[in-house]
């Protein structure tokens, strides 16, 4: 009976290796092909599906990305389907100088396209937003909806380690462009939106 242990152990080792290979190599490849999952620490880029999120605003209401863009649910009658939008999300902090400098440009884009099918959200990563945001919003005359990401979970989900980052997403939830501390953010966004939202 002792001699049977070695073949059994060898078989178990082989099966373990196959399982580990499947989990660490095949599953990520399949997920990346679907555009749903990215490798940890890798920034999202154009062509990928934007990671879903549901974030709270200062009023305590949760805003979910899937309510504004994504594939149509063919099971729902056309008359009951929600309108889809082009979405811009901008990650920012109240102590980030480039973030503050970009606000006027983002406001101009928001005002120009908000009635043409654009939704824009400012995603704040300050750890205690209730203490700093109300004053910041008032001082900077912010009209763009602000969402709270105080633990930076959504920032991490998008693979970002810093702010500002601005993501342009189409109606099907596909990322059209990612901007990192872009000096000409207004010009770049306007060029793309003018072609999409006419």
Short description:
The chain is an alpha/beta fold and 198 residues long. Helices cover 38% and strands 18% of the residues. The chain folds into two domains: 2-34; 54-196, Glutaredoxin (3-Layer(aba) Sandwich), CATH 3.40.30.
Describe the protein's architecture and organization.
It is built from five helices and seven strands; from the N terminus they run H-E-E-E-H-E-H-E-H-E-E-H. It is of the alpha/beta class and 198 residues long. It has a seven-stranded mixed beta sheet with strand order 2-1-5-4-3-6-7, covered by helices on one side. Strand 6 and strand 7 form a beta hairpin. Mean pLDDT is 84; it is low at 1-6 and 21-39.
DSSP helix fraction: 25-40%
Overall form: globular
Radius of gyration: 22 Å
Question: What's the multimeric state?
Answer: single chain
Mean pLDDT: 84
GO cellular component, one term: cell envelope
Main location: other
Subcellular location: Cell envelope
GO molecular function, one term: antioxidant activity
Supply the key terms.
198 residues; alpha/beta; Glutaredoxin; seven-stranded mixed sheet; 5 helices; 38% helix; oxidoreductase activity; Thioredoxin_ResA/DsbE_sf; disulfide bond; Thioredoxin-like_sf; Thioredoxin domain-containing protein
Mind sketching the topology for me?
Elements: H1 5-34, E1 54-57, E2 62-64, E3 86-92, H2 97-113, E4 118-124, H3 129-139, E5 146-148, H4 153-157, E6 165-169, E7 175-180, H5 185-196
Parallel strand pairs: 3-4, 4-5
Antiparallel strand pairs: 1-2, 1-5, 3-6, 6-7
Helix pairs in contact: 2-5
